[in-house]
Structures
1.
Amino acid sequence: MKHKLLLVLLFLSTMVGVGQTPIQGEFGALTLPEFRKKLQKEYGIELFYDPVWGDSLSLKGEESFSSLEGFLSAFCNQNGLSFFQQGKDVIFTQGQALNPKLPQGFWESPIPQESERTGEFSYLNAESPKESILANPENQVYSIGSFSASTAPSVAGYVRDSRTGEALVGASVFIQSPPTGTLTDNFGYYVLNLPRGAHELIYTYVGKKEARRNIDLQGEGQLDVELEEEILSLGEVVISGEKSQIESVQTGAVKLNLGEINTIPTVLGEADIMKISLNLPGVQTVGEGASGFHVRGGTNDQNLILLNGISVYNPNHLFGFFSAFNPNVIKYAELFKSGIKAQYGGRASSVFDIAIREGNRNKLIAKGGISPITGKVSLEGPIPGNKGSFIVGLRSTYANWLLEALEDPRLRNSKAYFGDVIGNLTLPLNEKNNISISGYYSRDRFRLDNDTLYRYANANASLKWRRSFSNTFSGLLTLGYTHYSFSMDSERTPSNAFSLDYGINQSQAKLDFDWYPSSKHHLQFGLQSSLYDLKPGELLPTQELSGIRPQILNSERGIESAVYVGDEFTLSSRLSIYTGIRLTHFTMLGPGEVFLYAPDVPRESSFIVDTLSFASGQNIKTYWGPELHFTSRYKLSSQLSAKVSIDRSQQFVHMLTNTIAVSPTDSWRLSNTYLSPQISDQVALGLYKEFTESGLEVSLEGYFKNLQNILEYKDGADLLVNETLEADVVGAEGRAFGIEFLLKKKTGQLNGWISYTFSRTRLRADSPFPEERINEGDWYSANYDIPHNVAVISNYKVNRRVNFSLNLAYRTGRPTTVPITQYQFRGNQLAYFSQRNEFRVPDYFRADVAINIEGNHKVDKLGHSSWSFSIYNLTGRNNAYSVFSRFQEGRVQTFQLSVFARPVLSLTYNFELR
Amino acid sequence: MKPVTHIRTFVGVYGILLSLFACVDPIDLDIPEINSFLVVDGLITDLPGPYEVKLSLSGPLSSNDFIQVEGAEVRIEEENGVVEILTEEATGLYRTSETGIRGRAGNRYKLYIRLPEGQQYTTDWQLLKAAPPIEEVYYQFERRDRPDGRLERGTQIYLSTVDPQAQTQFYRWEWEATWLHVAPFSSGLKFLGNDEAEFVGSNTVCYNTTLSSNINIGSSLGNTNDQISDFPLLFVSTFGMELMFRYSILVKQYALTEEEYFFWTNLEEANENSGSLFDRQPQSNTGNVFRMENDAEPVLGYFSASGVSEKRLFIDRTELPRDVNVGLAYTNDCFTRADTLTKERETDQDVFNAILSGRKFYDFIRDANLGILGWVLVPCECYDCKELGGTTEIPDFWPQ
C-alpha cells in the first residue's frame, strides 16, 4: 500500500469541484500514515502520497476545522505540499501541483474539421509529446469519436503485446460500471458499444500487466493498446480479469496457449499441441502414438482442423507420433466441442482452430530447438518500412538413428523422414486494411526395408484481407488452398512393381462479416465456398515386367457452399443468446459414373444392373440442409453462469478407414449418390464458476449427441482403389453422451488443470441384409468408447527460471474384439472372435514429469536459452496399446502390446536470439 | 499379388517400429469359456472321391482338445442330380463312398446336416469352379533376416499360375511337403551286455511329411490376364532338416468362388493380427453353413466346392550351394547329446539303466590294441528316424 501513489490513476477528465466534507473536532497528533488509515476508515477517503517524504510527516493536532478540505489545505501549506482531490481520492504531491487541465494545444491539429470528421475515427494529437503519452498513457484521457451525433458511440481497436507487437487474442476489455465487456477476436480486435461519456477501460490478458485507459466517448473511434509483459516476482499471484468462461456465450470450448504447450512433458520432448489436447475433457484417443482424436463421440474424420482458417487433412508425422505443427510458430489452438459458431462448417463433431503467430513486430528474433529426434528453427521480425511482420519456421527429423537401433532387420533397413515449413506474413496496409498471407507444407517419407516407399504431404496456403468499414463493421476475405496426397511405391519384385497415388485438393473462398449494430447485438454473416478436386486412386505398374493392371479411378469433384448468419444478442447483463443458422449445399459434379444396384439385395458389385454416366460439370448428386447453432448463457452471479447449446453439423468429405487408428494410407472421398453426408446433432448444458481470489475456474458440461451416416465397413473391405466403394461400406448411426468436469487454475505458482470425463459412445449398423449388419444390428461400443477419463496437467514454478510439470492420465481401456473360442478347420488352428468391441483392453494409467530450466531472465538479453528434461511414463507401466492373440501349445494366448513400456527420457534444448 | 497386401505388411511392421520402448505381455481378459459352436469342414472337388465332411465343436481357448460330433446325418447334394448320405467312418468324420457322388466343374453342390438332437444345417448351392493348371512351382535360394536379427538362408518356394480363360481369379493353395530324413546314429545294434551286441536293425531312412498349416490365398483381381506371378508360398530354411537330402513339395491349387475367397481373407486377417492399430478390426467369421431354424447361430468352417490342380517340385541337396550347412543344428545336437560311458567309471548296468531311461545304444568304443573301452549312447531321435514322425515306406512319387 505504501507505493500506491506510484500506481495512482489521475482522473483528469471528469474533474469534480472540490467539495466540502464536514469533520468534527480535531485529528490529534498523528503521523501521516496513521492519518491516512483514519481517513480511510472513518471517511472512506483514500489518501495517496509518496512514502519517501510522506511517512515522516505528522499532524500537529491543534487546529480544528469544520471541513476536511480546509484541514488538508492548511496541512499542505504548512508542509509545502500540493493536494488534489477527485471524489474520494486525495493526492498529495511535493514540488509540483497536479494540473487537471489538458496541456495547451492538446486538441489542436489532429482534430479534423467537422466536415471531414463524420463517421471517422479521431486520433490523438499527433503533435503532442508522444513520448510522454507512451511513458504513461494511463495518465491521459482519450477522446474517442467525433462530437457529431450521427454515429453510435463505440470504441474499437487492437490489443497487442508491447514486446512483440503481436495481436493478443482473447484479451478482455471491459468497464466496471455498468459491467460491460468483450474479448478481442482472432486479430486482437475488440469493439465495445458504450454509452456516451467518460469510461475507464480495463484491458487484461494472462501474463500481461493490466492496462487502463480513460476515454471520453462521444462517437465511433479507435483505441489501440499494447500490454506489457508481467514480470513476476516469486510467489505473486496474478488474478486475471479475463472472464471468458463466465461471460462468453460459448459452451464446450477450450483454448491452449503457447505457454501451456511448452511446459507440458511429451514423449521424446516434442512440444505438441494436438497431443496435449488429448488431455482435455471430451477428447479421446485410441492409443498412444495413434494419430487423430475423437471429440464427444465423433469419429476421427469429424474434426475440422484449421490452420489459420484453412483445413488440414493429415496433421501427423511418423504415423501419428507427432502432430505436424512446429510449436515455435503456433500462437494458440482452440477446440470447440459444442456451441460452434455458424461460420464454422464442414465437419460434424468439432473445430480445432490453430493460429500461427504473426511474428515480432519490433525485433528480429531467431529461435531454435533440438530434441532427440527433431531440430527446429524459426525466424521472425518486422518488415522494414512497414508495420508488418513475418514468421517462418522449419522443422526436420533425424529419426533414423532410432530405426537403426532396432533389432528387427526389416526396420533397421527402413528409413524415416519428415519435415514441415510454416510461415506467415502480416501486412497492415493502413488502419482499415490488413493483409496476411500464410503457408504450410509438411511431408513424410517412410521406406520400409529398402522396399516399399510411403509418402504423404500436406500443403496449405491462405490469403486473408481484413477491412474495417467502420468501428462496428468489418469484413474478412479469405482465399485458401489445401492439398493432401499420399503414395506408395514398390519395386522389389519386378513382376509386382507398382505405384499408387492419391490426392485431394480443396480450394476455398470465404467472405465473413462482423457487425455490431448496437451494444446488444453482434452479428456475423457470410458466404463460404469450397471446391474439392480428388484423385481417388491411381494404381500403375512401374516396370515393364510388372503384371499389375493399371487402375485409375475417375477423379471426383464437388462444391460445398454455405451462407450463414449468426447473432449474439445480449438481452441483459445476465442473459445472452447466440443464434446462428448455416445453410449448406453440396453438389457432386461430373464427369463421373454411378453404378445402379439391384433392389432388394445387398449392395454388392455382382448386383450392378446399370451404370449412369455424367458429363463434365453435370450435377451427380446434391445435398443441402440448414445447420442450426444456438447457445444461451445466463449469469446466475458475477462468477457463476449456466449455458445451453444446440448444434447441428453436416459433413460431405469422409475418411475411409477400417483400421483402429488412422493410417497414412487412409483416403478421403466425397459424398455421392450412396455416401450420405454425416450429420451430428448435439445438445450441451454447462455450469461455469470462477473463484477470483484463487484464480480457479470450474466447469461442468453435459452433452447428448446423435450421429447419422457414420461410415462402417463390411468385413474384408479393401478401401484403396475401390471402384465400388459403396458396396463395401455400411452407414451406421451413433449415440453419445457424457459429462465433463474441468477444474482449471490459470495463474499462480501452481497452475494447470484437472479434468474428468464420463462418456459413452455406441454405434449401430442395421440393415435387412445380414452382410450389412454389425453385431446383428445391435448397438455396440465404438472403438473410442472410453467411459472414464481423468487427466491432471500441472505446472509448478519453483522460481523464475525453473518450473516443474507433472501429468497424470487415467482412462478406461478401450473396447476391443478378442477370440472367444478356438477350432480346427482345414488343417488350420483358428480363433473365433467375439462380437465387435465386446471386451476391453486393461485400463490405462500414465504419469509424466518434466523440468524446464530457463537461462536468466534479463528482459533485454541478447540470447535466451532453455532446457527441458522430461520423463514420459515415469512409472514404466505397461499400458495396453492393443491386444492380440496367438496360438501357443494349443492354447489361445492373448497378449497386450505396450508402446512405451518403460520410462522414456528426453532432453530438449531451445534457444532464442534477438 | 495385390498391392493391398503390401499395406498389411507395412501395418504389421508399425507394431515393431515401436519396439524400441515396447513390450508384449500375456494378459488375461476373463473371457468366459462357455462358447461352443458347430464347426463344419467339408470339401468336394473335381478329383475322384471319396469326399469328407468333418463335424466338431469349437472349444475353450485353453485347450485344443475338440469334441467331434457323432451320429449326425450328413448329405451332399448335386443340383439337379444325385444326393448322397455320407457314412460316419470315425467319430465326427463322414465320408462318401468310393463309387458315389463325383464333383464336376460347373455343377453346384450343397450340404445338409441333421444333428442327433434334431438341429438342421445347410448351405446355399456352391458352384464348383475348375482350377487351371499351376503354371509353375519353383524356388530360389535366398537369404533373409530373421526377426531375431540372424541371417538365414534357404529356398523360397514360389508359384505362378495363369488362367487362359480368365475365369478363376480366386485361389487357395495347400501344400504337402515330403523330405528324406536319415538318422545319423542308426546302427541297428542291440546291446546285450558283456561287450556283446546283436544287429536287430533300425529305422534309418524316413520320409517325413508336413502339411500346410497356414492360409495361402491369392487373387488375380488386380492383375492383367488372370495371372498370379511369383506368389511366395513358403520359405524352407537351411536351419531346419528338410533340405538335408531331398525335399519335395506338392502344391494343390483350389479355385474359389469370390465368396469363399473373402471368407478366407477374413479368416487370415483375423488370425494373423499383429497387435498394431493399423490392423483391420478382427471380426467374427462364419462361413456358408447356417442353421435352418435360426440363421443367427454362428456356424464356423465352410463347405467348399473347388476344382483342384496339383504340381510337384523336388529340391535336391546337390542343387544348393555347397558351402551351406543344412540341418546343422540337428546334427550337432546329435553329436553333443551323444554320451560316452567308459569302463573306467561305468558298468554294463549303467548302460542298461540309460537304455531304460530312453537312450539308445549306438556302438562300443573300441581301440585296436586295448579292445572295448566303453559305450556310446544316443538320443532316440538320432537313432530311429521314425522318432521324428516320418515313415519308412517309400512314397510312390519318390524318384528312385
2.
Amino acid sequence: MEIVFALAVGVLTASGIWLLFRPRTFQVIIGLSLLSYAINLFILGTGRLKTDAPPVIPRDAATDPALFADPLPQALVLTAIVISFATTALLLVVLLALRGLTGTDHVDGKEHDKSRNLNQDDPQNHDQKQDDQ
Amino acid sequence: MNGLMQHLVVTPILLPLVVSAAILVLDEQRRKLKRGITLLAVLGLIINATMLIVVSAKDSVPIVYLLGNWTAPFGITLVADKLTAIMLMLTGILALATLLYSFARWDRAGPRFHALFLLLLMGVNGAFLTGDLFNLFVFFEVMLAASYGLALHGGGMARTRVGLHYIAINVATSLLFLIGVALLYSVTGTLNMADLAMRIPAVPREDIMLLEAGAAILGIAFLVKAGMWPLSFWLTPTYAAAVMPVAALFAILSKVGVYIILRLTSLLFGDESGTTAHFADDWLYAAGIATLVYGIVGVLAARRLAIFAGYSIIMSTGTLLASIGMANIPVLTGALFYLVSSTLGIAALYLLIEPIERHHDFDEPAPAPEPVFEDEYLAYYEGGHEDEIGVVIPATIAILGVGLAFCALLLAGLPPLSGFIAKFAIISGLLGEGQAITAASWVFISLIIISGLAVLIATTRAGIELIWSPTESSPTLSIVEAAPIAFLLAVCLGLMLFAGPTMRYMEEAVRAIGQKNLYIEATMKTPSSTQP
C-alpha cells in the first residue's frame, strides 16, 4: 500500500509542477489542482496509513491508540480541501476576466512567441497593438 | 487575567469578522454608513491593541486564550505577548490611515471594499495571535483571500494580469505551507506551537533531517510572503498595480511573513532546542543579505515611485531577515523598531504616490468594470472628475514635497527621524558588547548604510522629476488624503520623540520571545475556565 500511495503522490506532484510551469492559464489551474490533490494525500499519509480503523475513540472502550486512525490529519485535509476549492474557484474567475480583457489565455496576457516575432522590427506598432487591446 | 479583560485577545479577530459580515448585508449604495461602521471597527481595533500593550507591559507572561475552553494542546489557543501587541498596534494604525485615505474615492472604485478590508485585518490579526500552526494556515488563507480581492479592486487589465500571477504564486505557496505543516506533524505529532517547542529537543536523531526539512519548507512559504530574493519578483508589480491605499495596507503583509519567521525561529529553534538550535540562522542571514542587495539595485533602477516603494519593502525585508539571522537581542530590538518605522514610512510613501503623480500621466485610466450585482455603485467612473471631495488645501506642491522628504529621511535612515534610530540600533547591536566583529557583521553594516544612500539617490531623483518639473495644472490635494499621510508621519515622529520607552518595551518583547519556557508554561498550564 505504501508504494502505491507514494507513487500516486509522486505522479500527481510531478504532473502538477509540470503543468504549473506551462504558459496557458488553464494548464496552470489544472496544475495547481493536481498539486493540491497530491498534498491532501500527503497530509493524510502523515497520520500513518491504516485501513479499517475508526478515527473516533469510544468513551468506554479500552483505548489502544494503535487500533485507531489518526483523526487530526483527516481534519486538516478537510480544511485544506475547502480552502483550495475556494481559491481555485476565484482563480477561475480571474482567468476568465483576463481572457476577456486581453483576448488571450497566456498567463502574461500577451503572446510571447510568434506574434512578437512578427512585430519585433517595429516596437511602436507592438505597443500600439497592446494599447488597443 | 480574569473577567472581560481576557477577551481582549480574541476581539481583534472577532470584531473585524463580525463587522465584515454585517456590512456585507448592507446595500452597496449606503456607502456613508459602511464607511462609518468600518471606521468604528478600525478604531475599536486600535483601542484593543492599546489595551493589550498596557496589559502585557505589566509582566512578561504571555496571555493565553483557550477557544471553546479546550486546554492546550487539544484546543485552539490564541497567545498574546508584547510582540503580538506591537504588531496589532501597527496593523491598526496602518488600517486607520489607509481607510481614511480610501474615503477620498478609492473605496468607490469597485464593490465590497470595506468587507474585504476588514477580512484582511481579521486574517492579519489572527496570524499574529494564533498559537498553533494549522490555525496559522487558516488565518493566512483568510488574509490571502481578502488580499486577492483587494489587489483586484478597481479592475482593469494591468491589475487582472498581475492579480493572476499573485493568486497563482500564493496558492502554490500555501501548498508548500501545508507540506511543511504535515512534515512537522509527522515528526512531532502536534501542531500547537508551545507543544512543538517542548517536543523538538526530544526528537530522535534519525528524524532530525525530516524535522529540519519540514521547518525549511514551512519557512519558504513565509519567505515568499515576506519577499525574500529570489522569491520576490511578484511583489513589486502586484503592489504597484493595486490601488494605492491597498498597496499601503499590503505593506503589513510582508511583515506578517517576517513576524512568523521571527516567532518560529525563536520559539522552535532557539537556544535550548538541542541539535536543531539555530539551524536556519545562517540561511536567514544569507537570504537577508541577498534580498538587501536586490532591494538596493531595484531601488536605484526604479523609475516610478510605486516601483521604488515595492523595492523599499524588499529592502526592509532583507534587513529584517539578516537581523533575525544574527539572533542577538540588541540587533533584534533594533530590527523590531526598524520594522515598525519602515512599515509606516513605506505606507506613507504609497499614499503620497498618487497625489504626486496625479498630474504626470503615466498610463491610461482603467476601463470601468461591469457591475455584477444591481447594488454596485459605479459613480466613480460615471462622475468623472467631480470626485475630489473634501476641502482642497493650498500650497499642495510644498506639502507633497515635505511629505516626500519625510519619507525619504525615514526610509534612508537619516537623522533625526525614527528610521535613523532604528538603523543606528541595529548597527550598534552588531558592533556592541566588546566582542570581535565578524565579517558577516561588517557586510551587514555596510549594506545597511549603502541601502540608505540608494534610497536617498532614488528619492532625490524622483523629487526632481515629479515635484520640480512644471505641469500644466497645479495638483490638488484634499484634506482627506493629506490627513492620513500626516498621521502616519506623525506616528513616526512620535516614535522618535518617545524612542526611549518604545525601545525598552521592544527590548522586553524580544527578550520574552527568546524565553520559550514562559510561552510553554503559559500555554500548557492555562486551565480551562470553570464558569458556565
